[in-house]
Design brief:
- Chain B: It is found in: Mitochondrion membrane.
- Chain B: This is NADH-ubiquinone oxidoreductase chain 6.
- The complex is a heterodimer.
- By secondary structure, chain A is mainly alpha-helical.
- Chain A has helices at 2-26, 34-54, 58-61, 76-92, 120-135, 140-158, 165-196, 201-209, 213-237, 246-253, 256-283, 299-317, 325-346, 349-381, 403-406, 408-422, 428-442, 446-472, 489-504, 510-525, and strands spanning 65-67, 72-74, 289-292, 295-298.
- Chain A has one domain.
- In chain A, a hairpin with a 2-residue loop joins strand 3 and strand 4.
- Chain A is globular, with a radius of gyration of 23 Å.
- Chain B has two domains: 2-145, Four Helix Bundle (Hemerythrin (Met), subunit A), CATH 1.20.120.1200; 146-204, no CATH class.
- Chain B is 72% helix and 0% strand.
- The chains are: A mainly alpha, B mainly alpha.
- Chains A and B meet through helix 1, helix 5, helix 6, helix 7 and helix 9 of A and helix 9 of B.
Chain lengths: 526, 204
Amino acid sequence: MCVSMLYFALTVMLVLGIFSLMTAVALPNVNISPVLLTRVASIVLLYAAALSFNALDIQAIGSGVGIYSGLFQVSSVSQSIDTFIFLVGAMILLPWAPVTNSVMAGARSVFSAVPTIAEYPLMILFTTCGATFLVSSADLVSVYLSIELQSFAVYILATLYRDSESATSAGLKYFLLGGLSSALILLGSVLVYAYTGLTNLESIFTLLSVGGVENLTTGLGPCIIGLTIMVVGFLFKVSAAPFHNWSPDVYDGVPTIVTTWLAIMPKISIFVLLLELQSGFGFTGASLSLLVDGVPFDVWKNLLLVSSLLSLIIGTVVGLAQYRIKRLFAYSTISHVGFLLLALAVNSEESIESFLFYIVQYSITNLNAFLILLAFGYMLYSTVGRKDGYGTDVQFISDLSGQFRANPLLGLALTLTLFSMAGVPPLVGFFGKQMVLYSAVHSGYYFMSLVAIIVSVISASYYLKIVRVIHFDAYTNVQDAVQAPKMTNVHSFAIATLTMAITLFVFKPSIILNSTSLLALTLFHY
Amino acid sequence: MNTFLLDLLAFGAVLSGVLVITSKNPVISVLFLISVFVNAAGYLLLLGVGFVGISYLIVYVGAIAILFLFVVMMLNIQLTEIVSVGREYTKNLPLGFIVGSLFFFEVLSVLPASYSDAGELPLGLFNYINGLFLGVNSSFTSSDVHMTFSGPGADDSFTGFLQIEAIGQGLYTYGSLWLLLGSIILLLAMLGPITLCMRSASDK
């Protein structure tokens, strides 16, 4: 009861945030600057994080509490991931150029290359609302509705810069392919419903756990095919390998400030949903097996493993050929998705722990990389602007050449972040990969572990390529000598904090590690 | 008789669907779209799913298709462009045929096969063809549509609900949060076009 009330407070917080921002944007004669609105949205998200952290009482929640007549379910995992989503979302809202800074008031016209849009935080609140519903949904219809709310807002976000041709085309592509994956999810749900008459996930798990593989094959085969189609839709949305084609184009086309959101947030919630499905199937003895020629074949696990293998290989090998930095990050994301899917497929206690830890460390590292990229963009182009009409975004790896000499701290921070992504030992990324590989080897997935190790060595080469360009390439001075703050204090503070967190994790690992292992324990032992 | 009508309506819907994408004039194409919806609505009504059928007529025919019609008429598209585009995509017909037949095979082999008693060749033509493809004697019945699942509560057991009442009862008591979520999505759907299309005074 108490949990349900707290959860309701969370929803109300977000919806009230949406309403107040909507009114503020629409007011005709009040000149509230867009940057101020993003700050307000950021604070709304911080409050929501506090509320959802407040509702996290492991004793009271236990193995999960069904709320709203069982359509949604609050568990320890959903609450903590909610908190994490809000915190990361609040940080993504920070990096805007200092258009309102009083120092810059005279120079406002030169900042026209930095478009700030008042509707941006509004869409952010909508998609966060969808994400928090998605994390805790326990019914096929709830899953579909919340996934639509989440992705619909993200489509609008991608097209928000309507004057930019590349953003519009990327947004259209994202919309069409996202629509296709939603259709797949719907088709899967319909097949499940047509065969079982159930939409509640818990009931579907229970039904699937009855009877052996033979019964599943003869009686519920189409239901399993439906679930498979659904999962293909989800993999589409997280851009796992055979379904990854849209992501480099979309990430590259939209402005970096939107890419930051696209690359990080929708993935977290969908992965947590996959985790919930996995833990549901994992405890039904038969899992999702079909008899193929008399041999049981675990459809779910093999789907995840194949997708993981392809993601690892494609994300790494194709990434080697990229010279546009955001495409490179997109392929790096795909290879990280491979690691996440591997941890998910293994499904032992330590692999789920490593899965949660990987989500946390990967989101933080990726967020830091994009914040630094934005900062570089403001440093380089905020006063002169790009010649090719891309606003202030860093587009090519070569744009960063020799930047270590101009902005040593930013260059150092980006280097550390990239080392963390590559998995260099004292940084947080190493521990993520190490935990995934350890759990995979421990459960006997030797081939997959070998592939993962090899591709992570190969991928180190493209991260090192960026590091080389920043540190050792010739430095060409494109910036003029305007002595004004080009990025806000809070932006640089965020970069500093995240870089510290990535670097110094090794000294105090217990905060994140204990929480993730506690969550994995609640999944397996409650 | 019922199954014959069903087959006729299904055939009409599929035929008009094909005509929607093959007809050269966009206005004619939208008119065929309306015919698809009318056929589908009739099909649903005959099946006994009255509410969904009627809402098809009201929502799709009454609102969306007419809106399409107006928009298409206002756009004044040059016919020659469309014809040239149409020539290009006939090249993809074999691919479309392969993908389409694969999809049909999948769906037909996957969907519940409890098609027990229905008519023979002239009445259940599609079922007969399905049977030929799948090697099973499949045919289906259209008699029982379960309108609502009544819970054990006392208020449900006094009266039998009409379809709309059943939907309302389920939606407003059991699934009220879906209604909330749907309303947030609709709010977003309203805000989205405004955000993407409205120019503020400073932009001009």
